[in-house]
Amino acid sequence: MTEFPRSFDRDDLLKCARGELFGPGNAQLPEPPMLMMDRITDISGDGGEHGKGHVVAEFDITPDLWFFECHFPGNPIMPGCLGLDGLWQLTGFNLGWRGWQGRGYALGVGEVKLTGMVRPDRKMLTYHVDFTKAIQTRRLTMGVADGRVEADGETIYLVKDMKVALSES
């Protein structure tokens, strides 16, 4: 499918953030502190629950992460929207990994369920993205996926119908 590897370390993800992995004008990850993963452990264009592609990534949790200090003082919790953003980031990364051209942007999400919290005592988040559709036509490049976030092995976020597109404009 592509010439890219099936796993990426933090240095690779930072190259993607600088536009060096998929090339200028193509899918990019944000730089820290908005980069919501430390490594991608597995990625495909034909794997996952639906056989349409998947991504598995990890994010190391430490008590000094920027969001714990401000959300909320005296009751530190990672904002749920950051976990959702991590899933969107990985969905767009998969599209770039496939070799598809354009800059990524989130289009929406069908359903989000938050059933747990990320506090400073957690050690690791594991993101799972399973594509239900991956579309590339002359006019549209888009991925639709379901996602799950686990904190130390416990499922805490479930997401259905995330949509990410690539645009060359």
From TrEMBL:
Swiss-Prot/TrEMBL catalytic activity: a (3R)-hydroxyacyl-[ACP] = a (2E)-enoyl-[ACP] + H2O
Chief place of localization: cytoplasm
Domain of life: Bacteria
Pathway(s) served: Lipid metabolism; fatty acid biosynthesis
Similarity comment: Belongs to the thioester dehydratase family. FabA subfamily.
Alphabetical list of NCBIfam families matching this protein: fabA (TIGR01749), PRK05174.1 (NF003509)
Name listed for the protein in its UniProt record: 3-hydroxyacyl-[acyl-carrier-protein] dehydratase FabA
Organism, as annotated: Marivita lacus
Gene name per UniProt: fabA
